[in-house]
Amino acid sequence: MTEQQRCSWANSSPAMQAYHDQEWGRPTQDDQELFERLCMETYQAGLSWSTVLNKRAAFHRDFHDYQIQAVAAMTPAEIAAAMDDPAIIRNRRKLAATVTNAQAWLKVAAAEGSFAHYFWAFIGVPQQHDGQTVPTQTPLSARLAKDLKQRGFKFIGPVAAYAFMQSVGAVNDHELNCAWR
Q1: Choice among 24, 36, 41, 118 that is catalytic
Q2: 34-38 long-range contacts, Cβ below 8 Å, gap at least 24?
Q3: This protein's superkingdom (predicted)?
Q4: Of 178, 84, 67, nearest to 131 (Cα)?
Q5: 114: exposed, middle or buried (C-beta count within 10 Å: 0-12, 13-18, 19+)?
């Protein structure tokens, strides 16, 4: 059996391959999955994706498996405990943003029926680029980031919003030779 061709970035480690093959670019309607992916993109700001991926299990442990209600209710003492965990990215602003974003997420979900409903209505039809040039942001990701900020989200800009869009299948940036394109 021959191995399927995947995006070149995904070949750096088994964890990256699994993320690419099983998650990245797959549209999802699941609020908890969307929340985790948004959190991961905020953690990644200024770091490599492999760093975030390698710390994913620890983030799950420290952030209640991304159960949105539980994260929204986290106390300053829980954030302080997370700051002492060397297995995660210990950036106080990013960790605090996780809690703030969970609280904002719940407000969006209450107003729109679910965050997924809000997000996919905002995005419309998933985009596909030419496969040769991959932008770091687009006018749509800038509008999404601005709207999320107006709704109380923190640590989200056009670049993180675009990476989130890629992650959850709102844009298809798989390389031209990738079997998942």
Answers
A1: 41
A2: 34/115, 34/116, 34/119, 34/168, 35/66, 35/68, 35/71, 35/101, 35/102, 35/105, 35/115, 36/66, 37/164, 37/167, 37/168, 38/101, 38/156, 38/164
A3: Bacteria
A4: 178
A5: middle
**Mean pLDDT for all residues in the chain:** 93
**Domain span holding position 57:** 28-172
Residue 166 phi, psi (nearest 5) = -60, -50
Q: The domain that contains 88 carries what CATH number? A: 1.10.340.30
Kindly report the backbone phi and psi dihedral angles of residue 128, in degrees, each rounded to the nearest multiple of 5, phi listed first: -135, 125
Q: How many structural domains compose the chain? A: 1
**Which of 19, 24, 66, 162 is flagged as catalytic?**
19
Residue 168: inside a domain, yes or no? yes
- Choosing from 24, 36, 43, 49, the catalytic residue is 49
By the 8 A CB rule, do 153 and 34 touch? no
Q: What is the pLDDT of residues 95-135, one digit of tens each?
A: 999 999 999 999 999 999 999 999 999 999 888 877 678 88
pTM over 0.90: yes
Gap between the Cα atoms of 68 and 35, Å rounded: 7
Is 41 in the active site?
yes
